[in-house]
Amino acid sequence: MSKIFARGYNIERILAFTLAEVLITLGIIGVVASLTMPTLIQNYQEKATVVKLKKIYSMLSQAYQAASMENGDPTNWGLKDTPDTTSEGSRNLYNILIQPYFNVIKYCDVQPGCFYSQYSKTLQGDEFKENFDTNRRIKFVLNDGIIMMVSSYSSKCSYDDGYHVLDPFCGNVMLDINGKKSPNTFGIDIFQFLITKDSLLPDGINKTMSNVPTTNGRFVSGWTTGWVIQNENLDYLHCSGLDWSTKTKCK
Fold first, then answer.
1. Which of 188, 209, 203, 186 is nearest to 128 (CA)?
2. pLDDT tens digits for the chain (251 residues)?
3. Contacts of 47 (CB under 8 A, 6+ apart)
4. Is 58 left (phi over 0), alpha (psi -120 to 50) or beta?
5. How far apart are CA 11 and CA 67, in angstroms?
6. CA dihedral 50, 56, 60, 63 (to 10 degrees)
7. N or C, where is the chain less crowded by C-beta within 10 Å?
């Protein structure tokens, strides 16, 4: 120490220089963190979405199997053809597929209160054509915060909206995995399952969708559900040109 002082140094200068270095280092760390943290958070959220969606898929599949064993296939569930203005078929669907097997903490029937009052969004940011809170679907909230609604489309399980020729369906289940929290967007927190005569399918995983190009614009109707279940990612949010067989992730 005496040698340091002898050379004209003093402890204040040494500490000042050291403090400056520390501050510079902390500044660099802060910049790096500000650049990387959003990506890390996004990756974590997307992985959590995959896990949660696969869990609810498992639960719905088990409920479908149990309901089929108890009541026969969905053609015996009292479903109605669309438009079901009384919502009787959708109510029957809820009573057979959901009510016995899920912990429902809030039941809205066709009344508002379970979903958000604003319109949901497509992946492109456009306003979806249907207000979920005021429609005629049967709406409810599960104990884990997931909000769901069920709809009856065909008493004979033969409904085709132009995209499901090979897999006509009886009804569907639509859900928002994080409740009323934003972004309320298809493919991010809104997903859809189809109820067919033989199984419950994540929309997009069925035979028809395997032949449809999976550019972002083709995912608007909830086809992302099948993609997330099968490929375990939400990479359609980050790149285009994805394909079911040749390119299932960005990198």
1. 186
2. 555 444 555 655 555 567 767 777 777 766 666 666 666 777 889 999 999 999 999 999 999 999 999 999 999 999 999 999 999 999 999 999 999 999 999 999 999 999 999 999 988 788 888 899 999 999 999 999 999 999 999 999 999 887 777 789 999 999 999 999 999 999 999 999 999 999 999 988 765 554 444 444 455 455 789 989 999 999 988 887 777 778 888 88
3. none
4. alpha
5. 79
6. 140
7. C
